[in-house]
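4.2 Preliminary Data

To establish feasibility before requesting continued support, the project team ran the inverse folding procedure on a target of 595 residues. The structure was first converted into the token representation described in Section 3, and no sequence information of any kind was made available to the design step. The complete token record follows.
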């Protein structure tokens, strides 16, 4: 055993669990660049003989492996393995391997170090690879060796993609060996079968050129179960940049079909043409797509923001989220001596008491129901007069409304008891509303009216969720200009200039260079953003929330701000834990939250 083999990392032995073949996962490593041309790739073609059965960490009786590159054989590893258990008679008949042959052979735990060293920095190849790789991974797990997770190419799967039924009736190794006239015929012995698989591999690689498959990464993806549409349209992913940005799938008439974002445009778009992409709507989109447009961005934050703006502007038919930001609604307090809550599409400059934005009318109405449970706001839609009396509704008779319609309450008292708590809850402290709802939940729970308590709990969550969100947004959007920086992965700094919650400029300063000149250039060319009314005056709520998430990361540094960034000391943010319980727990968990 070499020094390198002896130093292979050991891990605690554990139970092997059969999973998806790791080598067919595009995230598999093994130190092999997926862009490496096939002719320059080192392959280790392996075959195992076993006692049969499922992989349990043992059962391997023989390993044969051949290392090749550019059609040339580099080295060979072959050994019998003592499985530590008797060999079934039918295995002896099939392979010719007897119990006597295996008694002097080393056990698998002694063979693994040399084998793992042999396959290092190579692509593993096997015929029906999940079977062989499953046994090898199970042996590593049982004996404490870390599986290196190499890239794996399955010649059986590749043959199913390359060869038609007219050429071969099946994809068995013996059938393929006869078709490609391999120098070594498979004999159910590991080394012979591995050598036959080498010739089959070379024959299949010779057929890949016609499918425009030239690299090892493309070959592995090609072997996977992709649809004819994915295979036909995979050329759309060619020539795209490997940088952060936005990609747009466009139809023949140039209509945007789908907009997405990624830190690596080329890699992300290629994934749409692999077996990992199984969404029906994406398959339909690919069938209609004729080209992919890339919009390069300075860093991922700019890419996310551009994606949101493009989706909002074009409403691509195959995007499900982030469309139609103009459909957001607000819950506001109306004007007049006896104001009520109203769901509106937009805020007027004179509106001062409001909550939102909500993603749907139903969400706004749920929050409104929470306020109606907590404070005596009237729920009727009549326009009330200080002079004329209007007949009261059933809510007044039930004690759920102070009946301002019949002038049973003065405008001043109504404002103090009903309207002022809404203003305070939305602008600063929702304590009064929270206490009232918690008390109602406690009363209902004590009376074993759990379903009603759950309804009130959902209303409490709606109120808190909207209040926390709006106060968080308002804290940023009231700042005229903010500059922030974050270390870029390749060195330098990712820079963002934000004005009133809108991304006005972005850039990256070069490594080893002070970022100040880049910040000055970004400011000089940044978008002009005027102040406006409301918590999201000049951007969608989703854009400002993306910016907030970026700014709140521990690695982000605030460089400059035109004014302070603050939130109310007694604001809704202090109820985040209560909100989490209301969203995820039962009503009994809230009874101890009253202060």
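Position-by-position output of the design step:
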């Amino acid at each position: 055993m070499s020094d390198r083999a002896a130093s292979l990392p050991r891990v605690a032995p554990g139970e092997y669990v059969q999973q998806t073949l790791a080598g067919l996962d595009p995230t598999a490593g093994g130190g092999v660049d997926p862009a490496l041309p096939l002719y320059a790739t080192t392959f280790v073609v392996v075959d195992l003989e076993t006692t049969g059965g499922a992989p349990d960490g043992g059962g391997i009786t023989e390993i044969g492996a051949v290392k090749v590159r550019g059609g040339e054989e580099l080295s060979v590893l072959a050994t019998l393995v003592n499985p530590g258990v008797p060999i079934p008679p039918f295995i002896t008949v099939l392979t010719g391997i007897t119990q006597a042959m295996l008694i002097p052979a080393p056990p698998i735990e002694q063979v693994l170090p040399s084998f793992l060293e042999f396959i290092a920095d190579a692509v593993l190849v096997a015929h029906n690879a999940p079977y062989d790789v499953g046994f090898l991974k199970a042996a590593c797990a049982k004996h404490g060796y870390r599986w290196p997770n190499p890239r794996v190419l399955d010649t059986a799967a590749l043959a199913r993609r390359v060869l038609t039924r007219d050429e071969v009736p099946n994809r068995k190794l013996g059938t393929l060996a006869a078709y490609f006239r391999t120098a070594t015929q498979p004999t159910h012995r590991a080394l012979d079968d591995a050598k036959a698989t080498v010739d089959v591999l070379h024959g299949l690689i010779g057929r890949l050129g016609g499918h425009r498959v030239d690299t090892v990464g493309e070959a592995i993806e090609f072997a996977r179960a992709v649809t004819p549409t994915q295979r036909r349209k995979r050329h759309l992913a060619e020539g795209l940049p490997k940088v952060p940005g936005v990609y747009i799938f466009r139809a023949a008439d140039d209509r945007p079909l789908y907009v997405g974002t990624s830190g690596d445009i080329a890699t992300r778009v290629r994934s749409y043409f692999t077996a990992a992409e199984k969404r029906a709507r994406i398959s339909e989109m690919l069938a209609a797509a004729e080209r992919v447009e890339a919009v390069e961005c300075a860093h991922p934050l700019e890419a996310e923001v551009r994606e949101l703006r493009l989706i909002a502007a074009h409403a691509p038919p195959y995007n499900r989220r982030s469309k139609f930001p103009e459909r957001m609604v607000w819950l506001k307090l109306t004007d007049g001596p006896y104001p009520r809550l109203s769901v509106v599409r937009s805020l007027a400059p004179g509106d001062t008491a409001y909550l939102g934005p909500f993603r749907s009318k139903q969400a706004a109405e749920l929050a409104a129901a929470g306020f109606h449970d907590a404070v005596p706001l009237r729920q009727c839609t009549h326009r009330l007069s200080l002079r004329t009396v209007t007949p009261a509704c059933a809510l007044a008779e039930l004690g759920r409304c102070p009946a301002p319609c019949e002038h049973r309450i003065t405008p001043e008292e109504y404002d103090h008891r009903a309207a002022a708590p809404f203003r305070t809850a939305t602008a600063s402290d929702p304590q009064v509303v929270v206490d009232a709802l918690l008390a109602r939940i406690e009363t209902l729970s004590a009376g074993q009216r759990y379903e009603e308590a759950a309804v009130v709990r959902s209303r409490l969550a709606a109120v808190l969720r909207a209040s926390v969100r709006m106060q968080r947004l308002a804290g940023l959007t009231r700042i005229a200009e903010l500059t922030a920086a974050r270390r870029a992965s390749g060195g330098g700094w990712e820079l963002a200039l934000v004005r009133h919650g809108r991304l006005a400029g972005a850039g990256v300063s070069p490594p080893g260079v002070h970022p100040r000149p880049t910040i000055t250039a970004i400011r000089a060319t940044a978008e002009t953003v005027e102040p406006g009314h409301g918590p999201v005056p000049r951007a969608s709520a989703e854009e400002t929330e993306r910016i907030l998430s970026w700014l709140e990361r521990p690695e982000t540094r605030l460089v400059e701000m035109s004014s302070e960034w603050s939130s109310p000391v007694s604001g809704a943010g202090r109820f985040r834990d209560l909100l989490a319980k209301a969203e995820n727990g039962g009503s009994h968990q809230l009874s101890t939250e009253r202060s």
